């Protein structure tokens, strides 16, 4: 009985503890504190508890601990005065939000006012057009319509703003897409044109998801190209593409207006080597006679003696350097000198062309008011070309009954300054649209500004012509031609196991161009390109893409490995069948079989051939370590990158064998094996067998 009471007591205590645990786990407490509530919380009134409830509450260990922790946290917050700080920060945030909302409302109202103004302007324009147009005939009567709700046009809603933005966004988006397309076309064209700068033609590879085609490119200039060289600021001209220009203008020999002699030749007398290089490249050459002082110009134009002296000096320089013409550049020309200048140009043209009519006299039109400074009609009769650099007067010049082909538009460019590239591109576009006789860059050089202007000139004033080179898609091969080309590629791979690509091969007897042409004719380049395209879409990192990429050499090597595997299996089956046949014949007929020796020799030959093909298969199979000679560096695709669109690769057309690769051909290894077999046969025949026969007792 006592044990039972104790047991019941224990069970009761356990039940009480279980209820306490369930109570503490079922009810959780929220210790979060609301910063917005800065008022002090009123303490709950205490309620008297009975003795039993107090004893039970003492068993709520977890609940009591959490309650005491909550009280400590609240006391700490009260002591630190965080409530007041949170209240202040809350007020600051409210003030900031109100100010932002106010600014947003103000901007919204400004947009509405702008839309209202545009609507009023459009309404006024329609009313003005209606007043000017004749009255329309009365319209036929229409059935009455339901009364429409008329809104005040002086106010706009959010819907009006949305409609205006929706109307503007497509136009902006279309302009952006057109600009991106033009920029892409410009990059592609300039890439080809730069290759053509140093060559008359270039072969360019065009790839799509299914094929690789090769085009032979050449270019045509839509007008003459002029390069102006600043003799007072020379640059390294030895790599300059003279052959791209029609005229090389040496700027400038300074004129002494009083005497007609030159004040400075601007290193003209020491430029023979440069002029000879330009002449050999096909450039016509002329020099500029410059005078930038209005008083000196007036004095010169009124002095017949000075004009004759200048004409004699020009004739001497033309004959000395075999120059093709002269350019007259008087920077400031007064209206009172207009007729004198025309008379001088007419005299100079007759004096220069008296012995050689092919020489040219050109005039630079510089004046801010050409209507007063130049008699274009008189100058047209004596001048071969006009250099202009102000597009605002182009329409005036073209309306003076002067052919557009006589005008050459020059772009001022220096190392320190030039106009924005958009304006320069537009000026070259203007040259093309008006069919002017030429375009020039003043001055040529090796600086960034010149290169930028030169790119714009190439892109705007040249056209590209392309001819498709025969490839696998347009010229199918016969079975014999296809087999021959594959055997040539197989042979080269077996002879040069360390090569990574067929382009720019080093120290080979077979030309790289032949191998590349064979890969094109067999369509291997198209297959490799298609596989690499798929790999670039699957790969997520440059390292992963580099593992997936294959070269033409890898593709041909894997194809060769499959061919060798099939041949090895066929010879293995044939050798096995011959061996079984040989054993059965020996078993049935023994030494009486008359084809015993012939079959044994055939079996030996098949075994040797099988061994050679098996070794060749092991040699080309990159899955077999220790024996394989495959290259893993993949130098052809060293340029593997990653951008926002994913990973991509660029081909390296200069492949060199790996220095760590033993470039021993398969034929050399075969020779070593056969030599070892031969030595083994000789040793067995003449050394081992005689020793065995000595101890042989019949």
From TrEMBL:
Transmembrane spans: 563-586, 598-619, 667-692
Species, as recorded: Filimonas zeae
Name under which the protein is recorded: Glycosyl hydrolase family 18 (Putative chitinase)
Sorted UniProt keywords: Membrane, Transmembrane, Transmembrane helix
Database matches in Gene3D superfamilies: Glycosidases
Region Disordered: start-end pairs: 125-155
């Amino acid at each position: 009985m006592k044990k039972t009471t104790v047991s019941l007591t224990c069970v009761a205590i356990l039940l009480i503890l279980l209820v306490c645990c369930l109570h503490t786990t079922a009810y959780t407490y929220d210790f979060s504190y609301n910063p917005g509530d800065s008022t002090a919380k009123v303490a709950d009134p205490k309620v008297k508890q009975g003795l039993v409830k107090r004893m039970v509450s003492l068993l709520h260990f977890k609940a009591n601990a959490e309650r005491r922790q909550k009280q400590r946290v609240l006391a700490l917050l009260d002591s630190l005065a965080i409530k007041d700080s949170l209240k202040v920060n809350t007020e600051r945030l409210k003030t900031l939000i109100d100010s932002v909302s106010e600014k947003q409302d103000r901007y919204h109202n400004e947009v509405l006012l702008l839309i209202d103004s545009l609507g009023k302007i459009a309404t006024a324009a329609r009313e003005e057009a209606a007043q000017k147009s004749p009255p329309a005939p009365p319209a036929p009567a229409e059935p009455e319509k339901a009364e429409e709700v008329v809104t005040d046009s002086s106010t706009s809603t959010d819907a009006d703003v949305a409609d205006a933005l929706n109307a503007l966004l497509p136009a902006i988006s279309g302009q952006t897409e057109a600009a991106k397309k033009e920029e892409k076309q410009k990059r592609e064209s300039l890439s080809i044109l730069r290759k053509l700068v140093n060559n008359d033609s270039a072969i360019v590879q065009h790839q799509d998801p299914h094929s690789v085609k090769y085009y032979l490119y050449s270019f045509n200039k839509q007008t003459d190209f002029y390069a102006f060289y600043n003799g007072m600021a020379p640059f390294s001209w030895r790599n300059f593409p003279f052959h791209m220009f029609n005229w090389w203008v040496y700027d400038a020999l300074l004129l002494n207006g009083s005497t007609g002699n030159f004040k400075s030749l601007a290193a003209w007398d020491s430029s023979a080597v440069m002029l000879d290089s330009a002449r050999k490249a096909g450039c016509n050459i002329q020099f500029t006679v410059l005078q930038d002082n209005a008083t000196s110009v007036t004095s010169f134009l009124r002095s017949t003696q000075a004009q004759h002296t200048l004409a004699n000096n020009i004739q001497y320089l033309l004959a000395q350097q075999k120059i093709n013409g002269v350019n007259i550049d008087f920077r400031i020309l007064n209206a009172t000198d207009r007729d004198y200048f025309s008379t001088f140009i007419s005299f100079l043209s007759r004096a220069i062309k008296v012995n050689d009519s092919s020489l040219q006299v050109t005039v630079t039109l510089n004046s801010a008011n050409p209507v007063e400074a130049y008699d274009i009609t008189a100058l047209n009769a004596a001048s071969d070309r006009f250099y202009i650099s102000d597009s605002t007067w182009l329409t005036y010049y073209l309306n003076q009954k002067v052919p557009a082909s006589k005008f050459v538009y020059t772009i001022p460019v220096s190392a320190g300054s030039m106009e924005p590239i958009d304006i320069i591109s537009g000026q070259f576009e203007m040259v093309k649209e008006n069919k002017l006789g030429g375009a020039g860059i003043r001055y040529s050089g090796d600086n960034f500004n010149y290169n930028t202007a030169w790119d714009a000139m190439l892109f705007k004033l040249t056209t590209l012509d392309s001819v498709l080179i025969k490839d696998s898609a347009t010229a199918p091969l016969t079975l014999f031609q296809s087999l021959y080309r594959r055997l040539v590629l197989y042979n080269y791979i077996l002879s040069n196991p360390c090569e990574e690509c067929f382009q720019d091969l080093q120290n080979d007897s077979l030309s790289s161009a032949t191998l590349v042409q064979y890969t094109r004719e067999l369509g291997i380049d198209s297959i490799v390109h298609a596989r690499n395209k798929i790999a670039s879409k699957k790969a997520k990192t440059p390292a992963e893409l580099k593992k997936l990429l294959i070269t033409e050499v890898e593709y041909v090597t894997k194809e060769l490995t499959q061919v060798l595997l099939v041949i090895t299996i066929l010879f293995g089956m044939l050798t096995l069948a011959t061996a079984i046949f040989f054993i059965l014949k020996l078993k049935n007929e023994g030494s009486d079989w008359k084809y015993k020796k012939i079959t044994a020799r055939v079996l030996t030959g098949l075994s040797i051939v099988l061994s050679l093909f098996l070794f060749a298969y092991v040699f080309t199979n990159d899955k077999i370590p220790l024996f394989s000679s495959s290259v893993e560096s993949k130098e052809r695709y060293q340029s593997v990158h990653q951008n926002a669109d994913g990973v991509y690769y660029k081909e390296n057309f200069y492949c060199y064998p790996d220095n760590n690769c033993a470039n021993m051909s398969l034929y050399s290894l075969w020779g070593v094996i056969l030599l070892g077999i031969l030595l083994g046969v000789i040793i067995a025949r003449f050394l081992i067998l005689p020793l065995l026969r000595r101890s042989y007792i019949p």
